[in-house]
């Protein structure tokens, strides 16, 4: 599972938040959140729930499907 960056950034703008604000609200460091958003760390279900709740969007909107590897 990974974050759809377009939806993520649009949601931050709509809420008038910076990524720093979101990190503080969900209880992680800005560096950790950046790694999750950029795909350098796997997005856990718990983190997806926290982010989607803070941005007031559905988790299905926040997450992008990863391509299936054969």
Automatic annotation (TrEMBL):
<dbReference type="InterPro" id="IPR010982">
    <property type="entry name" value="Lambda_DNA-bd_dom_sf"/>
</dbReference>
<feature type="domain" description="HTH cro/C1-type">
    <location>
        <begin position="14"/>
        <end position="62"/>
    </location>
</feature>
<dbReference type="InterPro" id="IPR001387">
    <property type="entry name" value="Cro/C1-type_HTH"/>
</dbReference>
<protein>
    <submittedName>
        <fullName>Helix-turn-helix transcriptional regulator</fullName>
    </submittedName>
</protein>
<dbReference type="Pfam" id="PF01381">
    <property type="entry name" value="HTH_3"/>
</dbReference>
């Amino acid at each position: 599972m990974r974050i759809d960056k377009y939806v993520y950034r649009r949601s931050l703008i709509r809420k008038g938040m910076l990524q720093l604000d979101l990190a503080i609200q969900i209880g992680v460091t800005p560096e950790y959140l950046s790694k999750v958003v950029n795909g350098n760390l796997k997005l856990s279900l718990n983190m997806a729930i926290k982010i989607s709740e803070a941005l007031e969007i559905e988790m299905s909107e926040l997450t992008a499907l990863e391509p299936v590897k054969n």
